[in-house]
Amino acid sequence: ETGVTQSPTHLIKTRGQQVTLRCSSQSGHNTVSWYQQALGQGPQFIFQYYREEENGRGNFPPRFSGLQFPNYSSELNVNALELDDSALYLCASSLGPGTGVRNEQFFGPGTRLTVL
Amino acid sequence: AQKITQTQPGMFVQEKEAVTLDCTYDTSDQSYGLFWYKQPSSGEMIFLIYQGSYDEQNATEGRYSLNFQKARKSANLVISASQLGDSAMYFCAMVLSSGSARQLTFGSGTQLTVLP
Fold first, then answer.
1. For an interface test with B, which of A7, A32, A101 has the most B Cβ atoms less than 10 Å from its Cβ?
2. Measured between alpha carbons, how far is B3 from A116 in angstroms, rounded to an integer?
3. Is residue A113 scored above 70 in pLDDT?
4. Beta carbons of A86 and A116 less than 8 angstroms apart
């Protein structure tokens, strides 16, 4: 069984640029959630994709967008990068949201984004 | 809206002793799930233990147990027989059954250091 993988592991960008982060979900999982974790804080929910559709979104501006592909892998795109976007971006895969609150999310190792 | 509060930014414990990490939550929902995750310095979130709001018994997973006091809205993590490898950041998180995304809401975390 392959776990959740993310690429790249580290990334350095400058303000105003655009970035794409990638996530491969665990085998058998059709749902991917993205979280942003600023230094010293808990992760914050960005959005979730279920069967290629956005299934929920946190309090993030539209310049944060995503995609999910037929194989359930996912991308997080951030446009017009700001200094405050510097954070660890975590991807988590799970079974469909209809499986109840016990539906465990399995996290990847994260992508550390630095915006200069 | 739901909220998780972890009031201990840092905790120290001697190796082989037990330690309790505090977590209180706030929600008006009756159906919810509570999770504890461990985050080593590598960044990956590791699931430790789960407690459902309707579970009558406290959850246990090996050396981890969850002291669930529903009336007080607390879900403290107890780690018995601490090991050096337990040194990490610990996050309490909640999922509500309402809403489609079942996203995790995290607290701010507790940095646990196990002393030899």
1. A101
2. 32
3. yes
4. no
Mean pLDDT of chain B: 94
SS percent in chain A: helix, strand, coil, step 5 = 5, 50, 45
User: SS3 letters for chain B?
Assistant: CCEEECCCCEEEEECCCCEEECCEEECCCCCEEEEEEEECCCCCCEEEEEEECCCCCCCEECCEEEEEECCCCEEEEEECCCCHHHCEEEEEEEEECCCCCCCCEECCCEEEEEEC
Beta bridge partners of A108: none
Mean pLDDT confidence for A87-94: 96
Give the residue among B19, B29, B25 at the shortest CA–CA distance from B7. Answer: B25
Is B47 within 8 Å of chain A by CB?
yes
Q: Count CA atoms within 13 Å of residue A105 on its CB side.
A: 33
Cis preceding-peptide flag for B40 (omega within 30 of 0): no
Across the interface, of A42, A100, A109, the residue whose CB is closest to B106 is A42
Could you report how far apart the first and last alpha carbons of chain A are, in Å?
A: 38
Q: Stretch A44-70: mean pLDDT, rounded?
A: 95
For residue A65, give the H/E element and its range. strand A64-68
CA distances from A74 to A42, A52, A90, B56 (A): 22, 9, 12, 37
Give the containing element (helix H, strand E) for A44.
strand A44-50
Question: Comparing C-alpha atoms, which of B90, B86, B79, B72 is closest to residue B35?
Answer: B90
